[in-house]
Design goal:
This protein is of the alpha+beta class. It has a single domain (6-166), classed as Gcn5-related N-acetyltransferase (GNAT) (Aminopeptidase, 3-Layer(aba) Sandwich). It is built from 5 helices and 7 strands. It has helices at residues 22-37, 71-77, 104-122, 136-144, 160-166, and strands at residues 6-7, 42-47, 53-65, 84-95, 128-131, 148-149, 156-159. It has a 7-stranded mixed β-sheet, with helices on both faces. β2 (42-47) and β3 (53-65) form a beta hairpin. The chain starts with 5 loop residues before the first strand and ends with a helix.
Length: 168
């Protein structure tokens, strides 16, 4: 599978991006390039022929404490005993309002999950992808795609073994 996104670059027009959530709009316009330079997050964009950003997501490495994972998940996945479990953080995912309602959110999510699965399969281990939903709308979106809530946290995760089944 090829990816539908590319690393954010200076050639992308991000100045007009508007998803209706100021925090996500400001991020792509003002902070994403800095985060990439500092190696804090990688920003991947979906753009049109004129390089206008239609949507984006960010990925970075993270870890979650083992005790935050429900026991039934630990047993089901047969996770080894480590204090912290390596994961990928899908930090942000947003679609410009003028492109909403066309399934691009799902397309970006699948692109991000595929990218994470490929990396976990080839170079950097991670047992899941985690998200920190911004609001109830985002939480509903991730639930629709199989993410489960971590107890005592706003975080949600999707096991890499589940993600792998999407791409076999």
């Amino acid at each position: 599978m090829t990816y539908i996104t590319f690393h954010l670059s200076s050639s992308h027009n991000k100045s007009v991006f508007s998803c209706g959530k100021p925090m996500l709009d400001d991020y792509i316009r003002k902070l994403a390039s800095q985060d990439m330079k500092k190696k804090v997050a990688a920003c991947f964009v979906l753009s049109d022929e004129s390089k206008t950003v239609k949507g984006y997501y960010t990925l970075s490495s993270d870890a979650i404490i083992r005790s935050a994972i429900p026991d039934e998940v630990i047993q089901k996945l047969k996770l080894p005993y480590y204090s912290n479990m390596p994961v990928f953080l899908l930090g942000r995912l947003a679609i410009d309002e003028q492109f909403s309602g066309k399934g691009l959110g799902a397309d970006l999510l699948i692109d991000a999950l595929k990218r994470c699965f490929d990396i976990a399969s080839s170079s950097v281990a991670a047992m899941a992808v985690i998200v920190d939903p911004l609001d109830k709308e985002a939480e509903s979106f991730y639930i629709k795609y199989g993410f489960i809530s971590l107890p005592d946290s706003k975080r949600m995760f999707l096991a890499m073994s589940t993600i792998g089944k999407l791409f076999k």
